[in-house]
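Researcher: Here's the sequence for the chain we discussed earlier.
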Amino acid sequence: MLYVMWKNVGRLLASSTHGHSHGHTPSRVSLFRETLFAGPILGLMLFVVGLAVFIIYEVQVSGEGGRTQQALVIYYSFNIICLGLMTLVSLSGSVIYRFDRRAMDHHKNPTRTLDVALLMGAALGQYAISYYSIVAVVVGTPRDLLGALNLAHALLMIAQHTFQNVFIIESLHRGPPGAKPHDTTPKESCHGLTFANQDALHTLPACPPTPRLVGTNPVGPQEAVAIISAPRGHWRRRCLKDISLFLLLCNVILWIMPAFGARPHFSNTVEVDFYGYSLWAAIVNICLPFGIFYRMHAVSSLLEVYVLS
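Model: Thanks. This is the structure I predict for it:
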């Protein structure tokens, strides 16, 4: 938070470059209308199931019935399904952008640069936890169901962070809807001396009026704007909005679980036995806050991606 404040102190934002809005402010009606409803529905289902899994995990781990292993199996199974779906959805969003002809926004934007830096930096915490978990599971002696679930969870965690970062960064660098790529010409094509003949300007004859066809019905300004702004690939925008909402809801539930006390890193004894409690506790306590901050910042970025899609 101090880093974000430090990067933004004293910086003035113009109205045209505020955030990543690109001058596009959607209305409240269109905000929830242009979706296929598949992403929000599936995201809400995973959110509700995730809350139930979190409650079951906390009850069984804190109880005295010895159901810790069963709680870990349920917890890891849900996370594997959720992370797998998020990875596939993020990958599909990147594939959709391959066919999107919107212009890329290469203008200097300090806010966007800061968002990308925070996403990449905060993801390193979860990368570190997953890396140490993979080493402990692969090198460790036990080969059981819990170890396999832990290994799959760590691998999918790395893949999900990677593909989601690619999708978010690519989304933030896209222009507004309807913006077409244009060929940029060099500003200074010729290097040399240029002479202007001021006397020749006064000898030029007056330009005759441009002939116009009679009987044609020119397209009015409103019709022209409607024709230009009507995207051919309108289904791509709907898919991207669904993808953004789905990833947003999944990141919310994956943010709630560790933020409210889910610690499978200590309930599962594979890493504790391999590294020792002190070393593993230091790794988790240093890296896990970065993972929680990543989910929080990803929710904000995905909401912005949804608005700009």
